[in-house]
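Consider the tokenized backbone below.
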């Protein structure tokens, strides 16, 4: 069997990191004990994955160390990295006694046709884990492979799987950030939450969750204001998730017309110049207080705008041009580990199930179009198109390196 893997040059290799290649290699016919061989069916691709790629060699993130590039013609683990993706697959071989051939699974995969994974001893009904002792313990959520048969959030329909790949990774970052802001009454709470890159899924899922809590509490406890580019303004307003939406050009004046209060700024864009303008606005506005600036994402960086091994989430000592040292940094696994000490596993599971069920019910009203791309040549071309023109918020991608018997290029209005 031949495997295909989507790889990117490491910035440290001196090659253009945006020149993706499809690497061919052999699939092992025999696999070691306590391993599984997956057939990766399809996977989501979004701005989140571009961030993984850009931070592939950064010391704190090390996204290229989850899956290693093969030693094959045109690539090696020294010159190339594999950008992780969230996807669905089926186990076609297993040498672990508690994990079985034929199981449908969801996890943090490589963009490949086949994926060989080691399985740690802590297998349970709901998941098994990939041992990665070279990575920090708080990366454990990324090492979890969900067993779909026992997953309370799983819906086997193709559209539901597509929505899971597109929203689930980003949604939980937004979910736990909103939980952190609310449950801790962080910085004394807030009357307004300002969110940059408001057209991105991470940002508008956060807005959705804040408004949902307002609705459950029966009062608009917090107003949500989105900042976005002029070209994305119409799309962002069409979502209906923000109380106000302003473009980056004129937001200074527009914010001044809103009621005064206690503000928290959540930066999803990762744009230092924008962040400086936001801070300057509130310094000049005596009646409103900016309690804190929180970094939740880096939608405006690419692999060519960040130095490898220089970014650090939550540290001011190692910062690159893509990360503002004046921001506080929210990293979901760290907060989740705290909540696991405060809440029972069943309580967390119930919180997540309720939120996910509501999202699946509500997201169909959002103006997002699903683009399914199948086949290695088509996936490579789709990636190159993204590099040329950027990701537009109206598009949601699901890719597969299988193309022979699967539909190609289908667009579906979600």
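A designed sequence for it:
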């Amino acid at each position: 069997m031949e495997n295909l893997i989507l790889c990117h040059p490491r910035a440290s290799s001196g090659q253009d990191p945006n020149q993706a290649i499809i690497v061919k290699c052999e699939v092992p016919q025999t696999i070691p004990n306590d391993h599984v061989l997956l057939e990766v069916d399809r996977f989501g691709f979004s701005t989140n994955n571009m961030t993984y790629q850009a931070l592939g060699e950064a010391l704190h993130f090390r996204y290229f160390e989850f899956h290693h590039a093969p030693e094959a013609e045109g690539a090696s683990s020294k010159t190339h990295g594999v950008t992780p993706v969230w996807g669905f697959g089926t186990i076609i071989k297993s040498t672990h006694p508690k994990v079985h051939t034929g199981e449908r699974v969801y996890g943090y995969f490589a963009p490949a046709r086949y994926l060989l994974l080691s399985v740690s001893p802590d297998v349970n009904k709901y998941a098994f884990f990939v041992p990665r002792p070279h990575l920090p313990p708080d990366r454990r959520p990324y090492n979890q492979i969900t067993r779909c048969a026992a997953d309370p959030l799983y819906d086997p329909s193709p559209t539901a799987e597509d929505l899971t790949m597109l929203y689930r990774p980003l949604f939980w970052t937004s979910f736990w950030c909103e939980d952190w802001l609310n449950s801790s009454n962080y910085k004394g709470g807030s009357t307004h939450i300002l969110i940059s890159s408001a057209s991105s899924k991470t940002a508008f899922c956060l807005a959705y969750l804040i408004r949902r809590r307002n609705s459950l509490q029966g009062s608009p406890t917090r107003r949500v204001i989105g900042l976005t580019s002029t070209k994305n303004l119409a799309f962002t307003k069409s979502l209906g998730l923000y109380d106000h939406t302003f473009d980056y050009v004129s937001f200074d004046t527009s914010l001044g017309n809103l009621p005064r209060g206690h503000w928290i700024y959540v930066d999803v864009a990762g744009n230092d110049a924008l962040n400086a303008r936001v801070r300057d606005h509130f310094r000049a506005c005596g009646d409103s207080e900016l309690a804190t600036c929180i970094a939740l994402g880096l939608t405006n960086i690419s692999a060519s705008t960040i130095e490898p091994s220089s970014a650090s989430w939550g540290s001011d000592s190692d910062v690159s041009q893509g990360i503002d040292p004046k921001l506080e940094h929210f990293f979901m696994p760290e907060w989740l580990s705290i909540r696991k000490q405060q809440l029972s596993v069943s309580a967390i599971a119930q919180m997540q199930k309720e939120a996910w069920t509501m999202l699946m019910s509500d997201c169909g009203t959002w103006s997002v179009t699903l683009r399914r791309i199948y086949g290695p040549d088509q996936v490579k071309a789709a990636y190159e198109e993204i590099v040329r023109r950027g990701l537009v918020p109206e598009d949601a991608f699901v890719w597969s390196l299988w193309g022979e018997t699967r539909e190609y290029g289908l667009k579906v209005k979600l």
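The chain is about 30% helix and 25% strand.
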